[in-house]
Amino acid sequence: MNRKTLSSIATLALLLGAFGCGGGSGSSEAVKTDAPAATAVTKVDPATAATITGKVAFAGKAPARNRLIMDAEPDCKALHSAPVLGEEVVVNANGTLANVFVYVKAGLEGKTFEPAQGGIALDQKGCVYRPHVSGARAGQLISITNSDPTTHNIHPMPKVNREWNRSQPPRGANIEQSFPRPEIMIPVKCNVHPWMKSYIGVVDHPFFAVTGEQGTFEIKGLPPGEYTIAAWHEKYPAMEQKVTVAASASQAVEFTFKGD
Amino acid sequence: MPETPTPEPDPVVSSSLSRALLISALVVFLTLVWGIADETFFMRPWKRYQSRFVDKYTAHLKRLQPAQAQGEEGIHKTATYQKLAQQIEEAKKQAAPQRAAINKELNESIRPRLESLQVKYQEVRSHIAALTYELETAGGEGSKKSIRADIEEVRKERHDLDLVKADGSGGVERQEWDFAEMEREYDRLKQRRAELQTEVIRASAPVSALERQRDAYVKEQMTGLTREQIQGLLNKMDQFPSDIKQIHVRQIDLVDRCESCHLGTREPVELTKASLGEAVFAGHPTRDLLKIHNPERFGCSPCHNGNGVATTSVIKAHGYYKHWLWPLFKQENIEAGCQQCHVREIVTDHAETLNQGRELFRGRGCNGCHRFEGFDREPELLQAARQQMRQIEMERADAEREMARTFQKIDDPKTPLEEADRLKARADQIRVNANRMNERLEQLDVQASNLMREVKKIGPSLKEVRVKLRKEWIPVWIKDPHEFRQTTKMPTFRLSEEEIQAIAAFLWQSGVEGKLADHPMGNAGRGKELFETRGCLACHSVGEGDKLMGGTFAANLSRVGEKTNYQYLVRWVHNPRERTRPYCALEKKDLGPADYAKAGKPFRFDLANAVCPNDGYTLQVQQMTVMPSLRLTGEETRDIAAYLTTLKRPEASYAAAPYLDDPQLKQKGMSLARNYGCAGCHEIAGLEDEGRIGTELTKEGSKPIERLDFALFGHPAKNEGWYNHKGFFERKLKQPDFFDQGKVRTQLERLKMPNFHLAGPEINALTTFLLGSVESQLPETFHYRPEDQRRDIQEGWWIVRKYNCMGCHVLRANQPSVFMTLPRYQDPDWKEQLPPQLVGEGARVDPNWLVRFLANPALSESDTNRNGLRPYLKARMPTFTFSEGEVDKLVRFFMALSSQATPYIQPKLKLEQLSETERTMARQLFTSKGAPCLKCHATGNAAHDARATAPNFLAAKDRLKPGWTYRWMLDPARIAPGTSMPSELFRREGTRWVFNGPVPDSFKGYSKDHADLLVRYMFQFTPEEIRRLGGGVAGN
Predict the structure, then answer these.
(1) Is CB count within 10 Å lower at the N or C end of chain A?
(2) How much is the ipTM here?
(3) What ranges in B651-748 are assigned the alpha helix state H?
(4) Which residues of A touch B63 (CB under 8 A)?
């Protein structure tokens, strides 16, 4: 009898011991934190670098350029002896279109390039922005100067980047700002002088150009491959073309904007 | 020998109970095992949760530590930190010798001596204290005397003491002292110790101040927790006690044990489902909410529902079982819990779904059939006011009669003199009371006429159908409004053909007769341009489906040309409140020219002439619509109306409807209209006093589930798991006759609620709102019923929603107005044409000016075809014809939002006086080359203002507040992001702001703030100064 009791007590004690010692154990997980991958800067070998050249033609009758009315600001009016024409559509003498922003839209995915050296300049002279259309790299400094005898106000109106506006007195300090994100195109206006307009195209690679008086553009230093080139104009809808460039070759592209 | 039968075995000896015992023992044992298992494993799932949490959280914190440590190291490297650390070191060095000296004295001389004295001293002292107690409680004078003697004896007794020497040498001296000497030495030592301790603190003060500064710097710069804080949390996890975590709010008898499993709710580290891998440990989103509603005061379940007390299983705790009536709100309805306390509001911060639900309830006209406390209060308030007026009039009549009687008695010579005196006093009292009643009546009268203006109906008045609508269109519309106009508010009723014809006939025949003025046709091309720029699209829309452009607050006008005629549109667009006949609520009649002719009056009625010719009652002289008048010229009105009549589908055709004139259908139609509750949304002749036909929904969320009629779907609902309020509301809103399915009913017995064609998110919003509309378990002190300025904000939102201010204006940060979504305004050039944003309007404008502006935005009686303040905007601020009460509420709303003190005292008297030199200086600056002020701002001079793009600042002193003007000039982009006003016109120089450009020579030597000078100049304009600046009449 004693042994029986002893054994049942022992069993009971064992059972008690097994259940009494707390609940289940949790599982500790190790969640991996991934380290950010370092992106390598693409170096373009000058031996194999390709070039895309071309011109932007204008078909149709060039629309008449409107006169900018500067009556509200006599100081501006006094700076000009001849009427100042608007720069919305500037058709050159050889039938090409100026102020067209040409850039590589696709084909450079995944590549980052060395940051730009130096900055670009935007001047306010004669109460108009010079240049009317310009390009910049994302993060590149844009240096804005005021060469007029009146206070100007620079007000870019981007949709992706942050909007700001700053005043610049005559002969005042340069304003240096940059746009960290690529955006096509950022209109810039002056709060004080409503006729002033400028456009800045921000891209994250160095392959862009603006057509000038000859209506031509040249994009140098491209790695060989297939690209989509886009041409933007402030009035007419943008155009695109696919181009394939071989190593050290030069490819010509032509855009034709049709006037109404 | 016969065999003796074997004796039967004695049961006591032989029968064994061991089987029964064994079985019982086993059963008891199994029960024990079961009990222990339940206790430790099954019934306490929260223990498992807690141990999992401890493990996972510890791992998470350990992972965080290095990153945070790195961040802290970064801060340690910054210049500020280094400088502070250096300063701390220097201060420590400086303080070191003094501290050393003090500590030496403390530790080597004072403390040891004190300790050596203490024991004996305290022993004697307590002996004396005990004797003193006996003295106090002693009985007679004799025993007191003897005790006093005892005390003296103890005091005089001399003791041997081994005291540590006071010179710090460590040696011991022997003293023989009585109590008085011991006490003296003891007090001296204690005092010296206290002195030394304060000196230590003073010496270390600069060090501790610097250390505090350093820690504050680290805390500011650190995002998240510092290493020490994380270590603190880790220590907490090490010593984590595994027990029930509960919140007990004694006041409301609330016990919530949610945090026993939801351990991450209030942890200082931000935890998401991904951080610890389990959704249950995620932290509470929107920490701001926990700051406002401290869980220690509110608990969890008042907001979230569910069974806060349960801990035995997830299902029980969340209340998803049949015995718990209030299950946890699902994620998409989480904001329902806000409604029970924020019941007064129509806009609650952090509760966008709930706000949408409330706005749908209000905007779609649910209120037309279902009463809800707080919505559409104006008719009820009007009735209450009228009743009160009647009652007061009766009381006044009683008072007058009593007065007459009293006078009679006074004048009667037979009345004794004292009685007469008493009655004279009484008569005076009655007279004064009657006067007070008159005052009250006057106020109620004003209130009633205000309310009369404020009463609005969701749908257009159906009394005008004869002058407004094309008769064949009416039955097409009633059959399915949604087909004619996808975005219409009017729901689709389930009517048979006969019913439609009867109702259409009734409406047609009950409409008032009237004649519209005959206008020549306008120019539709110009009208289109006006329509798209004057601001119509802030409320109305054109285009259908993807091409829809404009706001959804008011009707889509894509097919309005099919429905109405040109002349009515001209009258409507010119003044939407104009109605064909005024309505007298007393006689229940629309008065015609004949009624006026009887009283010899011309048939003219408007807000100024609103008295009934028959009985002097106040007439309803306006259409009960919220659409305002845009103060358009006749030509503009005709052009817009012409454009609107071109909006139609050319292929649409309408069948002839001769039954509309059938008088036999009229009576049937009227009873059908009554049955379906048309008068809940529309003004219909003959049904002006109809009540609402639906159930009251104010506490629908608390309705016992048995009282919701699931019809034949009770069992399927229980089986499929939607037998609860949410399941009912969602199905009912999606298809209002859902619960009629399978039922055999006549047409009139069927469910009447029409189909509103609600989209999924809208149904969810309304369900959230209804789920939250409960009889709150919390006492009134918990409800959000502020009586201060915050109440003005609550009331103001109702009016803002009613009139759709947000169609044109931005009132809350990050809320886009409808204007901002219109395609035309995406062009950067048109951004300047947007109506002004009103965030901070209370801080900007003088409330008295705002009252004038809201009453008449043209700010002129003569020239009304303009915006009084911003004539350069093409969009037009309309005249809303607010009642005085509404204007008052709106102005107080803006002031409250900007925490402005009311009443507002104009600061002209508070501003520093402007000297003449200062005035000249300011004028020179204003008109200088460098200052762009006059290039954009209007001045009142018509020639100059033709090119102005900013308000007339010569009127600033009447309109703006100087504090705001100062801040605006310094940094406008902070107040109104995206504004055209240039920033950086001033730069900081020392403690003052200086104009950022060439200043006139007269400013040489001027040491005061330039911006302040300009503000004072603007607010102290004299008429002569204004003329000098070339301005016209200022302060229109």
Answers:
(1) N
(2) 0.76
(3) 663-676, 714-720, 725-734
(4) 31, 33
- B325-341 pLDDT, tens digit per residue, is 899 999 999 999 999 99
User: A23 and B973: CB-CB below 8 Å?
Assistant: no
Nearest to A166 among B59, B978, B983 (CB): B983
- Which of B43, B51, B984, B987 should one mutate to test binding to chain A, selecting the residue with the greatest count of A CBs within 10 A? B984
> From CA B826, how far away is CA B681, in angstroms rounded?
37
Separation between Cα atoms, residue B263 and residue B285, nearest integer Å: 14
Helix (H, G, I), strand (E, B) or coil at A240: strand
- Structure confidence at residue A4 as a pLDDT band (50, 70, 90): low
Taking an 8 Å cut-off on Cβ atoms, the answer to whether A19 and B931 are in contact is no
A191:B980 CB<8 A: yes
Strand order in the sheet with A133-137: A133-137, A197-203, A183-189, A152-156, A166-168
Residue B814 burial (CB < 10 Å; 0-12/13-18/19+)?
exposed
Q: What is the pLDDT of residue B977?
A: 80
In this structure, the number of other CB atoms found within 10 A of the CB of residue B767 comes to: 26
Smallest CA–CA separation between B928 and chain A, in Å?
10
Contacts of B930 in chain A (CB under 8 A): 150-151, 169-170
Beta bridge partners of B174: B162
What's the count of helices (H) and strands (E) in chain B, helices before strands?
43, 10
Q: Does A169 reach chain B within 8 Å, measured CB to CB?
A: yes
Chain A nearest-CA residue for B49: A26
| A197-203/A183-189 β-pairing | antiparallel
Q: Which helix (H) or strand (E) holds A166?
A: strand A166-168
Measure the CA–CA gap between B216 and B84, rounded to whole angstroms: 11
CA distance B834 to chain A (A): 15
- A210 Cβ contact partners less than 8 Å away, ≥ 6 residues apart: A99, A100, A101, A102, A131, A133, A134, A135, A217
Which positions ≥6 away from A6 have C-beta within 8 Å? Answer: none
Residue type (1 letter), B658? P
